[in-house]
Amino acid sequence: MKFKTTANKTLVALAVASSFMLAGCQTTASTATEVSPTQVAPMVATPVDTGSSEITLEQAMAHPDWLGRQPERAFWNGDSKSIVYAQKQQGNELRDLYVQAVNSQSASQVALNKLHTVGAKNAVYSTDKKQQAYAFEGNIFVKNLSSGQITQITHDSAQQSKPQFLTDGNLAYRQGNAFYKVDLATGRQVELVNLHLDDAPKGVQEPDTYIAKEQHKLIDYIALTHKNKKDREAREEQIKEQNDSIANSQFYLGKGKRLADVQLSPNGQALVAVTTESRPWRDEGDIMPNYIADDARVKAEKVRRRVADEKPISSDVIYIDLKSGEQTTLAYDTLPGFDEDVLAAVKKENYARDGKTYKSEKAPRAINLMMDWGWDQSAIQWNTDGSKVALMLEAWDNKDRWLATVDTKNNTLVSQHRLHDDAWVNYAYNDFGWLNNSDTLYYLSEESGYSHIYKKPLNGKATQLTKGQFVVSNLTLTADNSAIYYKANVEHPGLYEIYRVNPANGESEQVTNLDGMTDYQLSPDESKLLLTHSKIMSPPELYVADAKANTQVTQLTHTVSDEFLAKKLIAPKIVAVPSSHTDQPIYAKVYYPADYKEGETGKNRKAVIFNHGAGYLQNSHMGWSGYFREFMFHSLLASEGYVVMDMDYRASKGYGRDWRTAIYRQMGTPEIQDLADGVSWMAENANVDTQAVGTYGGSYGGFMTFMALFTQPDLFKAGAALRPVTDWAHYNGPYTSNILNHPDVDPIAYEKSSPIYFAEGLKSHLLINAPMVDDNVFFQDSVRLVQRLIELEKENFETAIFPVEPHGFVQPSSWLDEYRRIYKLFKETL
């Protein structure tokens, strides 16, 4: 990737107001290939501390309305002159919708009787961009963008979705498992296809048993009745074939199936449907007791099954030619590696532990559509004219991803790209599509070690369009193929800006220069960008900018409250902690005490390390954190003399493939090694007493707290584990099987990675905070570990339960109770 020259800029984290002075540390490299995370300075300066009013624990844990009610779910209006966003009402959970012109600083609330007039984020546009189509409350609407006239296409209680402009200028939409075409000039509606999840009707059957055949021979009435049925069936078929007024669009996909996805071609002449076995999402025993129910009884809430109970499942890809009526199920045997025993080494290791020998054999693997957790696109993508279709497929064992096209002449899948990972293929960074009016694909791939953009003609080699030690995401192609816009952390792992690359020559240029966390949406006319931008010390707001290099932005919303701006909060510094185990440093936020003086000695500071959740999540970045309560709690601790560190340990997002997969088959080992490096860094650089360090976190962070206290018992004096995983065999399949395979295949990985197997190592003080109606990490996780600790006769632990809370706490009183306990733990033990 070649970058056009842009003005050098100072790399900083961010200020709440423009009056803050920021110190620089890093300039922009001239080409992407020169940018490397290891080149970034060891510390990034951040704003001076804000406000003058002390933050209290009660305020930090209060309902977030007091921060200001930030814009949500923003999108462009079809005219490209205004935006639409939702805003929460004060004091309740309802949202109102607002429209704001991009040249205005004020917004107008949309009346409830006008909600259907403002379009939708996933609205689609006609080829000439003169019409917009969208769904609202299960009905389909078409808006003329010149006149503003809105036509309601459907007005009924059925649920319609997925409006789609066809190449002939008309509109298609989906209702249930059927697709309809609407002539926009006349309003005439035609059923294009009706899919049935059943076997095809067998029609009139000939007798097939001895006594049935004899019955037809001996009894004239039976024979005559059978003949009449056959005649009637034949006539009905003739009418369907010869009379155009009758829809002949029924297709049968098989009994006991469910429809994973279906996409109609832009020309309305073909369709790809993907089916899989219809299975319940849970087993009968998968329940969760709810003790605080509205009828004062114990309710058995239904919950998902555990990874230990999952069984392989595969899908069928069905190509349907609507003109000929031909329906073909495409085989996977043309995909490279479709029958490889990719887990042979893992199986061999597990067999050997049990004194057995594993013999590797080839066998077809279970394969399904790719499921990207952040997608707003389908894994089935047609080219512009509907003559070609591409699918992104993944193996159930998580080791392969294929980008394949359909050869309609030979009814086969053609592999265009295979991405293999011995650990697991990422469930993010899978955007793909076709260049407009072209038979060339573009897609994201981590094959270089970082997510980058590639293009590939169907019969040619792939070309890498972006290169460097940074992560690319969120692709948007322009109508004329002149640019693919993308989001990337080119200059620093924690700083995200918007860029664009020319697919023809791979030349990239920087678009935004905002220093923080920035997301974007290209306007329908492609002239402007709607930006959602935040900084370390300030929540996200909406901005607008021209869609060009080195653009200038205008802030549209100002929703942060004066009360929040007045609070005295300590701005964290972004530091690069040297790693004892990798060449890359571990990026972390550090909250220095209010009275800290650089160079002080004595090793007398107390410290806390916070462990973010999700595992694959980035929190040491320069934008506003989803952990805003923790941010204020850390500021409070720092104001009282603590050093607080928030690490992007190995497994965190934003640092490339190898950082992500370091935990493969050993969750809780690399991460705790990184925490140990964090403690050492604080001792050397922040005057911290290593005998006075605590740790805490929720979900994955709670799991890490357990693993730290159990496997390195001298590292922390105390720890708080919130909504924690204790045994990965009880967690869900899609997440866990990526990292640890499945328990029946790789029990070694589960035993090596689950805290319950290491509980005997507990020496320090432990607080377990467990919500009881958590359908993500079950309350049972904490119950089983508590029983294990009791049986091990451990003394330094206590448990707090939260009867009405799910995985993500909701009630401010619960938040306050939880953090009072954490605060007390650190006060009393460090």
TrEMBL record:
InterPro entries from the UniProt entry: 6-blade_b-propeller_TolB-like, AB_hydrolase_fold, Peptidase_S9_cat, Peptidase_S9B_N, Serine_Prot_S9B/DPPIV
Superkingdom field: Bacteria
PROSITE patterns tied to this protein: PROKAR_LIPOPROTEIN
Signal peptide annotation: 1-23
Matches recorded under Pfam families: DPPIV_N, Peptidase_S9
Domain Peptidase S9 prolyl oligopeptidase catalytic: 635-830
Keyword terms of this UniProt record: Aminopeptidase, Hydrolase, Protease, Signal
Sample GO molecular function, one term: aminopeptidase activity
Domain Dipeptidylpeptidase IV N-terminal residue range list: 379-540
Descriptive protein name: Dipeptidyl aminopeptidase/acylaminoacyl peptidase
Species for this entry: Pseudoalteromonas lipolytica
